[in-house]
Amino acid sequence: MKVLHYNQTAGVLAPLSDKVENIILECAPSKNVVAFYRYVCSRINEADPDIVHIYGAWDWHIGVVAYAAYIKNKALVYSPMRGIMSSVLEWNPIKRRFWQFVTYQYWLIRNAYVLIMQDSHEDGIFRTTKLRESGIEVLPEPSMIDEDVQKDFMFAIYNKTLDTNYKRYITPLEKQYVTAMVQLAVLDAGDQIAPPYIHNLSTRRIAFYAHDEDALEMMEEGARKLNMPMPELPEVTDDMRYPVGKRKPLGGFADKEVVKMIMASKKIGLKNLTLRHWAELYNMFRYVDFDEDQAAREIKKHGLKKTTLKIQDYLTELFFLKPGYNIL
Questions:
Q1: What does pTM read for this prediction?
Q2: Which DSSP state fits 302?
Q3: Which residues fall within 8 angstroms of residue 257, CB to CB, at 6 or more apart?
Q4: What is the pLDDT along the chain (328 residues), one digit of tens a residue?
């Protein structure tokens, strides 16, 4: 894990964990926004960090670093260093800090995956002003614990940030492993499916992807059908990630009747369906005996023809659904 740190001044950074590769982005203030942006981008390209950690407030340089991290698709951690206190917030448009707030400071507060507060008072300012209510961590006070505990605290935050953003780092082979195991579970024994590639894959990223796709039980079934061992995957719980963005609905379809499933798919959105949803749709199209002519009439009646055709196309791509099992 690589973490690129940027501090607007030469002040003290949060404790740097020994368990990660820490890279310091040299403070090189410039009056030229474009030149500074290019400098930051070049350093990010050179270091290729997993996380960019920014310290400080009310300086346009940190806004540029945050924007560069966003453009380069890097996870962002932000430590205001007591800079966002009620005494320094300016809501008067005439004041300079108002324009700093609306141009970059507010964006940084809202878009960082986690904010690290120096103490509970600073944390309270954020919660009372409603600037941010989740994804906030309070750094343990140095007077209360030793530095090693603080370093472990920072490492835990970085790990949680990576777990929250695992989709940035998951490889095509890791995603294909989950898909292949689900295919093994739903297809007939006569269908020829090559055993998935299992070497040099991150079991942690696979575990999160399988959890979000609601696919763990099907993966285990696929392993049993192939009579092959499956790597031990860590258990995924809600407290392992920060609540950033929406996740796919788990649990499959409540009603397993074909038209109801297609209606539910349209309501959820095909892009939001999990592998479990697709497996249930495949099972319905392939193995359940229903009146296809009646289903086709119902589909046209409810304006589901376009959705059904898209479902059939994707099932053909994902699970090799044969044309004879299409409804339309």
A1: 0.83
A2: T
A3: none
A4: 899 998 877 655 667 878 888 888 877 666 788 888 998 999 999 999 999 999 988 888 889 999 999 999 899 999 888 777 655 555 555 666 777 777 888 888 888 888 888 777 767 777 666 777 677 888 777 666 677 788 888 899 999 999 988 988 898 889 989 998 898 888 876 666 666 777 778 899 999 999 999 999 999 988 888 788 888 899 998 888 887 777 889 999 999 899 999 999 999 999 999 999 999 999 999 888 888 889 999 999 999 999 999 999 999 998 888 888 888 7
Sheet with 21-24, side-by-side order of all strands: 21-24, 2-7, 51-55, 75-79, 114-117, 136-138
Any long-range contacts for 128-135 (C-beta under 8 Å, 24+ apart)? 129/86, 129/89, 131/84, 131/106, 134/242, 134/243, 135/242, 135/243, 135/244
CA distances from 71 to 5, 148, 259 (A): 17, 33, 42
Q: Which of 148, 138, 136, 170 is nearest to 50 (CA)?
A: 170
CA-closest candidate to residue 179, choices 313, 320, 285, 310: 320
Cα 93 vs. chain centroid, distance in angstroms? 36
Question: Counting runs of H as helices and runs of E as strands, what totals does the chain give?
Answer: 14, 6
Tally the residues of the chain: 328
With a CB cutoff of 8 Å and minimum separation 6, the contacts of 172 are none
Q: How many CB atoms lie within 10 A of CB 16?
A: 17
Burial class (CB in 10 A: 0-12, 13-18, 19+), 180: buried
Query: Is-contact 302 267, C-beta < 8 A?
Result: no
Q: Is 52 exposed, middle or buried (0-12, 13-18, 19+ CB in 10 A)?
A: buried
Phi then psi for residue 99, to 5 deg, are -75, -35
* DSSP 8-state secondary structure symbol assigned to residue 76: E
Neighbours of 155 (CB within 10 A): 18
Distance CA 299, CA 2 (A): 51
